[in-house]
Design goal:
Layout lengths: L2 H11 L5 H14 L4 H5 L6 H9 L7 H12 L3 E2 L2 H6 L6 E2 L12 H8 L4 H15 L3 E5 L14 E5 L1 E2 L10 E6 L4 E8 L6 E4 L10 E5 L1 E12 L2 E2 L1
Antiparallel strand pairs: 1-2, 3-4, 4-10, 5-10, 6-7, 6-10, 7-8, 8-9, 10-11
Helix pairs in contact: 2-4
C-alpha cells in the first residue's frame, strides 16, 4: 500500500473519518446551501438513495466520487468546501460566499497610515506580537516551520494563540493549534484526540509536504488554538 493510501485509510478509520461523521458533514453543507435532497440531486448523476445512504453512514458512507459531486453542487449555491474536510474533517470548514468586494470603496484611514508607515516589516510584526501578548494571558507566538498546514499557513508566517494546559487542551480538539510536545518540539497542526489516555493526534492539512503527516498518541505540554495569523504586508 502506498504512503498516501495508507494515510487516507488511517484518516477514514479515525472518528472524524467514520461514515457517520462524513454523513453529518454532508447534511451540514446541504443545509448551508439551502437544498433539499431532491434539489441536491437535480441536474447531476447523484442518486437520491445514494445521498440518503451517505447522510446516515450506510454501506460505508460517502465516497470520494460522491464528495466531488456534492462539492460541485453546493458551490453553485455559494458554499465553498474542501474534499479533505468533507471526507476526513481536516482543514477549514465550509464557508458561504455572499458577495464581492467593492473596489471603489476607499480604504480606512488606519490602513492608509499603516501602508505609508516608514517602519520596516520586522518592526511592525514585533509591535503586533507585543500587543497581542499584552492583551492575552498565556499568549504564545510561533513562526510556521514547515508546509504541513498549507495552503492555510506557510513556512515563515507568524501565528499566535492562547495556551491551554492539562485537561483544558480537550476544548481545542478539531482546531488548528500551536502544540508543544513533552519532548519540547513545537508544531502547528490540527489537534485530534488520541486513542490512548491523555494523548492527542497531530494531523497535517497537506500530507505530501512533511515526512510525518500524522503523529499518533502524543503527550502535550500545551496547545494554543490559532487566533492570530500574520503574513508579511497582511494581517489576519
Amino acid at each position: 500500500m502506498g504512503r498516501r493510501k495508507k494515510i487516507e485509510k488511517e484518516l477514514l478509520d479515525s472518528p472524524e473519518g467514520s461514515p457517520e461523521a462524513r454523513g453529518l458533514r454532508v447534511r451540514r453543507i446541504r443545509n448551508m446551501a439551502n437544498l433539499s435532497r431532491q434539489q441536491m440531486c437535480e441536474n447531476t448523476d447523484i442518486n437520491i438513495n445514494s445521498l440518503k445512504g451517505w447522510e446516515i453512514g450506510r454501506y460505508g458512507g460517502l465516497t470520494w466520487y460522491g464528495a466531488e459531486k456534492i462539492i460541485h453542487q453546493v458551490a453553485k449555491e455559494g458554499v465553498q468546501c474542501s474534499s479533505d474536510w468533507l471526507m476526513y474533517g481536516i482543514g477549514a470548514g465550509p464557508s458561504v460566499q455572499t458577495g464581492f468586494v467593492d473596489t471603489d470603496i476607499q480604504p480606512p484611514a488606519t490602513l492608509t497610515i499603516a501602508t505609508e508607515s516608514t517602519q520596516n516589516e520586522d518592526e511592525k510584526i514585533a509591535n503586533e506580537l507585543a500587543l497581542f501578548k499584552k492583551q492575552y494571558k498565556n499568549a504564545v507566538d510561533f513562526i510556521v516551520a514547515d508546509e504541513g498546514m498549507s495552503p492555510l499557513y506557510h513556512c515563515g508566517e507568524y501565528v499566535g494563540g492562547i495556551n491551554l494546559f492539562g485537561q483544558k487542551i480537550d476544548v481545542a480538539v478539531g482546531l488548528h493549534c500551536i502544540t508543544q510536545m513533552e519532548n519540547g518540539n513545537i508544531l502547528l497542526r490540527q489537534l485530534r484526540k488520541g486513542s490512548e489516555p491523555n494523548t492527542y493526534t497531530l494531523v497535517c492539512l497537506n500530507i505530501d509536504q512533511t515526512p510525518e503527516p500524522v503523529l499518533y498518541n502524543v503527550k502535550l505540554i500545551s496547545a494554543a488554538p490559532v487566533i492570530f495569523h500574520r503574513k508579511r504586508n497582511m494581517v489576519y
